[in-house]
């Protein structure tokens, strides 16, 4: 059995791993967009990676099945391109992962369509050449539909047979609704080999989601390492953190709070936490706007899958009949409604995508309030270098936004209390469910290289001797 690492190697994004058995059955685990490349507005690569067939460094038609850990674009974002290049098989994932992936890919396809239309209006030769190149790499809604038609939903903790000698089990990973650790069992040469792909590992006691479940003993473990070198900084509960910033921003002064947030997962955790603040702690019902059509559709998926949420959320729903709807809450569905919020003069909270303040409707809210000293911009997630969110966090006195240089008079704060990733202690806890004597090798992926090196050292100190940091394209015999 051979394992080749084609993504998320010594970087965070682009998860993609190819497992090939001795009888040439090929399994692709995740097919994510590499967002560390030069990217377009939807985070998808503008330039094809070098490889044997153009977009992929392997022949897509030779893949037998795709297994998807969860919906986020850095794990799912190249699935439509895989079909465009010749893949004809199925995608296996949990039911919520299917629903959320469909939403995210349709949203990306819509952005791709808009971008291609804008480039098509240009008469410049350089732009026309760029358009031709992008048309080969940017998928549209048709490719998303073709991909999603091939999804087979899989239940958690139920062994599914892929072939005579191969089975797979999806184990709850926390992190996002439907997210899974994927455990593959293969019989070769009279013995059974097991390999686990962690996906993204959630954290303990996260709003709405169940805690990540431990994985049975395996022979090989592919483990994410996003927080491999650090702990979460904010030790408050989500309720306590939000209560503090709302009081300072919207109650003590008549200001507004802008929270850039990813539409899938993060926004649902925010709305649920706000609901609890208002119903359980007697907070005055300050107006809350959720400005993301994608967030609205994602919230419907969460509501549909109440059975998969944690016990606390289920009990809250039974008592209150709603997780995400509360007094003075409003979804802004149209662009016109989004723009008109600038004219709202009372204290309010605006939750809008994207979380990195790069693209999306949140840019217009930040642009309208960046010079407002009564505004607080609360960054609750990771911001890649060069994004507007990253520039705000670095304390620049002025910011270029919407082609205008604006003084930064608004307060900029950050918290990691809503991070969906487990920190170093969570990652160590996950790995230590495995016996250091029985686990043959740990491969570290999905993290900055410095994080991987630090986590490698931590695991070695814990008694795990065989900890490897693979390079892109590196192949291992298992």
Give a structural overview:
By secondary structure, the protein is of the alpha/beta class. 31% of the residues lie in helices and 21% in strands. It has two domains: 2-230 and 420-477, Metallo-beta-lactamase, Chain A (4-Layer Sandwich); 238-414, Rossmann fold (3-Layer(aba) Sandwich), CATH 3.40.50.10890. It has helices spanning 73-76, 79-84, 95-120, 125-137, 141-148, 238-251, 266-280, 293-304, 311-320, 335-340, 362-369, 388-393, 424-431, 449-461, and strands at residues 2-5, 17-20, 26-29, 65-67, 90-93, 151-153, 160-163, 166-172, 180-188, 191-197, 220-224, 256-260, 287-291, 329-331, 348-352, 375-379, 398-401, 404-407, 411-414, 441-445, 467-468, 475-477. Strands 6-5-4-3-2-1-22 form a seven-stranded mixed sheet. Strands 7-8-9-10-11-20-21 form a seven-stranded mixed sheet, with helices on one face. Strand 7 (160-163) and strand 8 form a beta hairpin. The radius of gyration is 22 Å and the shape is globular.
Distance between the termini: 5 Å
Average pLDDT, to the nearest integer? 91
Please give the CATH architecture of the largest domain.
4-Layer Sandwich
What is the 3D shape?
globular
Quaternary structure classification: single chain
Q: How large is the count of helical segments? A: 14
Query: Strand sequence of the main sheet, in spatial order?
Result: 6-5-4-3-2-1-22
Please tell me the total number of domains: 2
Pfam family, one: Lactamase_B
InterPro entries: Beta_Casp (IPR022712), MBL (IPR050698), Metallo-B-lactamas (IPR001279), RibonucZ/Hydroxyglut_hydro (IPR036866), RMMBL (IPR011108)
Protein name: MBL fold metallo-hydrolase RNA specificity domain-containing protein
Organism: Larkinella bovis
């Amino acid at each position: 059995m051979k394992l080749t690492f084609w993504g998320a190697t010594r970087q965070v994004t682009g998860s993609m791993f190819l497992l090939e058995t001795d009888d040439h059955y090929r399994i692709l685990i995740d097919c994510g967009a590499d967002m560390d490349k030069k990217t377009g507005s939807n985070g998808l690569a503008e330039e094809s990676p070098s490889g044997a067939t153009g977009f992929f460094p392997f022949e897509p038609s030779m893949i037998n099945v795709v297994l998807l850990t969860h919906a986020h674009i850095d794990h799912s974002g190249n699935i439509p391109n895989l079909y465009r290049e010749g893949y004809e098989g199925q995608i296996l994932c949990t039911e919520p992962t299917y629903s959320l992936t469909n939403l995210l890919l349709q949203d990306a396809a819509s952005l791709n369509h808009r971008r291609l239309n804008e480039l098509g209006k240009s008469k410049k030769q350089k732009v026309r050449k760029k358009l031709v190149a992008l048309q080969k790499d940017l998928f549209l809604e048709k490719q998303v539909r073709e991909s999603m038609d091939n999804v087979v939903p899989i239940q958690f903790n139920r062994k599914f047979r892929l072939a005579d000698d191969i089975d797979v089990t999806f184990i709850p990973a926390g992190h996002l609704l439907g997210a899974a650790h994927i455990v593959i069992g293969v019989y070769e040469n009279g013995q059974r080999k097991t390999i686990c792909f962690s996906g993204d590992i959630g954290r303990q006691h996260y709003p709405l989601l169940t805690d990540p479940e431990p994985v049975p003993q395996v022979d090989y473990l592919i483990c994410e390492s996003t927080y491999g070198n650090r702990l979460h900084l904010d030790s408050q509960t989500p309720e306590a953190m939000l209560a503090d910033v709302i009081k300072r921003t919207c109650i003590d002064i008549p200001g507004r709070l802008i929270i850039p947030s990813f539409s899938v997962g993060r926004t649902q955790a925010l709305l649920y936490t706000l609901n609890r603040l208002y119903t359980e702690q007697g907070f005055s019902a300050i107006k809350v706007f959720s400005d993301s059509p994608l967030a609205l559709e994602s919230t419907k998926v969460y509501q549909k899958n109440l059975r998969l949420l944690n016990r606390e959320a289920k009990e809250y729903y039974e008592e209150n009949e709603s997780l995400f709807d509360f007094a003075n809450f409003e979804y802004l569905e149209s662009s016109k409604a989004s723009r008109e919020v600038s004219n709202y003069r009372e204290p309010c909270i605006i939750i809008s995508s994207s979380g990195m303040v790069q693209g999306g409707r949140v840019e217009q809210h930040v642009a309208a309030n960046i010079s407002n000293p009564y505004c607080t911009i609360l960054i609750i997630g990771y911001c890649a270098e060069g994004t507007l969110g990253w520039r705000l966090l670095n304390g620049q006195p002025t910011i270029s936004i919407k082609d205008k240089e604006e003084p930064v008079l608004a307060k900029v704060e950050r918290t990691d209390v809503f991070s969906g990733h487990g920190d170093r202690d969570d990652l160590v806890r996950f790995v230590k469910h495995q016996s250091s004597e029985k686990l043959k090798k740990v491969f570290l992926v999905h993290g900055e290289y410095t994080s991987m090196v630090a986590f490698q050292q931590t695991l070695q100190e814990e008694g795990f001797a065989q900890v490897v940091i693979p390079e892109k394209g590196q192949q291992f015999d298992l």
